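A further point concerns the way the authors explain their paired sequence and structure data. For illustration, here is how one protein appears when written out as sequence plus structure tokens:
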Amino acid sequence: MIRAKNIMSRKVLTVTEGTNIRHVMKLLSENRVTGLPVVSEDMALLGIVTEKDILDVLLHGKDIISKTARDLMATDVVSFEEDEDLMTIFRTLVEGNFRRVPILLDGKLTGIISRRDIINFLSEKSNENTC
């Protein structure tokens, strides 16, 4: 069985609750990611802020200049432990229409798995099987 820790990206770009949304947008854009985990100083997962969260605020004509990650982040984040079976995560990404899920160890963020991570993993496995 393949576990989350076997394919997760360990270098996770994060922000804190106090990060200004303008900086969040810059990080999203420059790093070509669609969402950022919001963490405490000790890497406890507090929430996630996504492109969609920002666009939703803009769509409704609200000011984002003074907003922080805390103001826009979703706090009901679906996450998994490092030992979770990859198939469970795969199913959640598809059925829950998520782009990424944080991976935790004892409540602390240790990685992230995105749809792209799974596609890359499957691509590598199919190349190994055809050699």
